[in-house]
């Protein structure tokens, strides 16, 4: 009988513990306005990061495009200065990709190069835009906001989400 009472009491005790009132979280309505406001905040934060970065590199005389790409051609090529890469051309480049904090993500240099089809390839749209501002032999720095780079997801390897990039590019050649 005592065992039965103990079992009954234990079941009652456990059952009462399970009946705690669960407070429901109020549902938050997410609207287009919330998304727009959130995106504006992210953009402002990234612009401040880029501005701070450029304050640390005052010697970079960057030009900003309508898309937000900033570029600085720091070495003019001694080759043909009238031939700019155009859509459909094959650009041959060496590059170093870094985050604003200086963390190096990727490097293709020292007698290696990458070829890509201008405006028709997997290369970041910021690089696609910037490469068309260069002539063969130029070396440039691109500051690429995340929306022109790897955006919300990063590259799922070395570039984190929502990160602006600094890309040092050397345009070796163009195949027309």
Explain what the structure shows:
This protein has 176 residues and is α+β, with helices and mostly antiparallel strands. The relative contact order is 0.18. The chain is 27% helix and 25% strand. The radius of gyration is 27 Å and the shape is elongated. Strand 1 (63-64) and strand 2 (70-75) form a beta hairpin. It has a domain at 60-176: Chitinase A, domain 3, CATH 3.10.50.40.
How is this fold's topology laid out?
Blueprint: H1 2-17, H2 32-55, E1 63-64, E2 70-75, E3 90-99, E4 104-108, E5 114-117, H3 125-131, E6 139-144, E7 165-175
Antiparallel strand pairs: 1-2, 2-6, 3-4, 3-5, 3-7, 6-7
| SSE pattern, N- to C-terminal | HHEEEEEHEE
CATH topology of the domain at 60-176: Chitinase A, domain 3
**Which spans of ≥5 residues are poorly predicted at pLDDT below 50?**
none
The termini sit apart by: 96 Å
Overall helicity: 25-40%
CATH architecture annotation name of the domain at 60-176: Roll
Q: What's the number of helices? A: 3
Structure summary, number of beta strands: 7
| Overall spatial form | elongated
Overall residue-averaged pLDDT value: 87
Main sheet record: 7 strands, antiparallel
> Which strand-content bin applies to the residues?
25-35%
- Estimated structural class: alpha+beta
Radius of gyration: 27 Å
CATH top level of the domain at 60-176 is Alpha Beta
């Amino acid at each position: 009988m005592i065992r039965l009472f103990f079992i009954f009491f234990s079941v009652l005790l456990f059952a009462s513990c399970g009946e705690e009132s669960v407070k429901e979280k109020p549902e938050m309505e997410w609207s287009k306005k919330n998304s727009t406001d959130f995106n504006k905040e992210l953009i402002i934060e990234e612009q401040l990061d880029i501005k701070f970065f450029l304050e640390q590199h005052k010697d970079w005389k960057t030009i900003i495009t309508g898309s937000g790409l900033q570029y600085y051609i720091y070495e003019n090529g001694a080759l043909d200065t009238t031939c700019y890469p155009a859509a459909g051309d094959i650009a041959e480049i060496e590059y170093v990709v870094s985050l604003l904090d200086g963390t190096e993500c990727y490097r293709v240099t020292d007698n290696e190069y990458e070829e890509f089809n201008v405006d028709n390839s997997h290369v970041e749209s910021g690089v696609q835009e910037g490469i068309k501002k260069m002539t063969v032999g130029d070396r440039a720095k691109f500051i690429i906001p995340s929306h022109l780079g790897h955006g919300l997801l990063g590259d799922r390897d070395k570039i984190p989400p929502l990160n602006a990039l600094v890309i040092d590019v050397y345009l070796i050649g163009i195949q027309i």
